[in-house]
Amino acid sequence: xxxxxxxxxxxxxxxxxxxxxxxxxxxxxxxxxxxxxxxxxxxxxxxxxxxxxxxxxxxxxxxxxxx
Length: 67
Description:
The chain has a 3-stranded antiparallel β-sheet. The model has no long low-confidence stretch (mean pLDDT 96). Helices cover 18% and strands 57% of the residues. The chain has one helix at 17-28; strands spanning 4-13, 35-48, 51-64. It has one domain: Flavin-binding protein dodecin (Dodecin subunit-like), CATH 3.30.1660.10. The chain has 67 residues and is of the alpha+beta class.
């Protein structure tokens, strides 16, 4: 039987939501072991001079706690 913990993170990108998700997961993976899944909670962005400035995603990431 496994036990999991959830971590909330926010990823950003100037390219799009998918890139923001990838950046967040890849950066979190540098310090969080045993990540198993993620869930997109929110999508939002910034507006700069009437244009999209940045895409942002809030994620829950699940990781298994070591035995």
